[in-house]
């Protein structure tokens, strides 16, 4: 899978990560799918209810409202973004919750080295997605 983002999306997510550091930043990703590519068109910044440096949780009503608004705009839910105070790889807690989100993409930003990585959990197998910035 290819996850395509615009440079402004990357900058927005980096800035949000800096703004809330050391708390994990989080956001919802919306856009369109075509073949083996997910194209992000909208990012909804969300508050981390846990206010934790190592875990995140988004209020379910925020998720429901954002998904409804995106559907009205003709966009699909693509996945979740969050930052990590470590390398941009899913933690054991992330892997547990990825199972609940189907084949949604999880975009992770390391707040230690500013690297991004994206993953999907498909048939209980972790697959890294290719990130394409336009």
Explain what the structure shows.
There is one protein chain. The chain is of the alpha/beta class and 134 residues long. The chain has one domain (2-133): Cytidine Deaminase, domain 2 (3-Layer(aba) Sandwich). 25% of the residues lie in helices and 40% in strands. It has three helices and seven strands. The protein has a seven-stranded mixed barrel with strand order 1-3-2-4-5-6-7.
Rg measurement, Å: 14 Å
Report the CATH topology name: Cytidine Deaminase, domain 2
Largest sheet: 7 strands, mixed, barrel
H/E topology pattern = EHEEHEHEEE
Structural class: alpha/beta
Query: What is the strand content?
Result: 35-45%
Give the name of the CATH architecture. 3-Layer(aba) Sandwich
Number of domains: 1
- Residue ranges: pLDDT <50 for 5 or more in a row? none
Major sheet: arrangement of strands: 1-3-2-4-5-6-7
* CATH class type: Alpha Beta
* Helical content band: 25-40%
The CATH homology group name: Cytidine Deaminase, domain 2
The shape, in one word, is globular
Total strands: the figure is: 7
